[in-house]
Amino acid sequence: MKIASTKADVVAATRLVENAVQGGDDATISSHFLFRIDDRGLQVLASNGKRLLAGAYVSNATIEGEHKSFTVSAWRFSQLLNLSPEGPCVIDFDGSTSKVHIGGRTIRFASLDPSTFPYWDSTFKASVETGTVSAGRLFAALSYIRPFVSTLDTRTPALAATECREGSFLASDSQSLSKVTVAGLDKSAIRVHFGDIPGVNAFLGLGRDLDIVIREHDTTIFLVRPDGGVYGVSRWTHQFPNLKIDSNTTRASFTLDVESFRYGIRFLSVAAAKGDDRLRFTFRDGSLVLSVAAVAGDREEFTVITKDLTGIEALSEVNRSDFDINTNHITGILDTVSSETVTFGVNWTPKNGYILHKHTVGGDDHVAIVVWKK
Question: Taking the model in full, what pTM does it have?
């Protein structure tokens, strides 16, 4: 078999699938790219053999010969592409070894048995289309909700994934709740484990202006690009609990300068103990004052540039002038904010309270509720 293409076209395909490769020993099929010829052309496949799979077509490839598939070590092949200049890329496969001609040089790779690859053709064929959404909007939704998905998949497995219901992704880690409504996913029941979100977003990030078709199977969720690129994740088996999020009720609010808020959090992290995720919010003299327990003793404070406080004085009803919030939840929200200011609502009961963040991205509502730490 002889394949002729260009470095740029080969890189475009391998980049779409590389996050599904399992690192490690070259002797395992999950550490290889599999090149396969089908009716559409030259396809590159990868699968870690457990939870992830991916496929992409190499544009403008010419193919000669009888062999239909072979494999190459993913990290070795990727390293070769990174080292090589732009230009032609030709692969000759003789049934056991592939010779890659690129940048005026030739290097050989041994192929594993392609029949041992965990193909997903039958699963894909049996899957059902459940929606279409732009990659950018899906990327934004998963980026926003990720900090609120529990990472304790053995202790609270039902919370270890975000699940789409009636067009909205839901997530919780017992200290927070998040709901992101995405137009076009009304019929979708996507359920994505927290550990799979980075790989999904890496795939989406390579074409944010493209429309992604969602296909679902009992065991697998497929994201399909118009060019045939596909990324799949195993459906998390534990169903998300029935939780309701009230994003319309707040008794107070505060608006902050985003850069001042971000800097204050980073500044105070220098004083706090490593791993301390408790950030105190105190309202004093018309401003929000952040503070942490300092390793040097007492507390370190930072006054945030505060644009507006509304109704905060009513906290006196529950004898409170301050509350503690998980720092990771706040930074997760700020990572998705592109505006100069950010507004939080506040609600409380005699026993506890929460802050609420709500904004709209591309017509989709993003909502997060973070409960005060006890």
Answer: 0.90
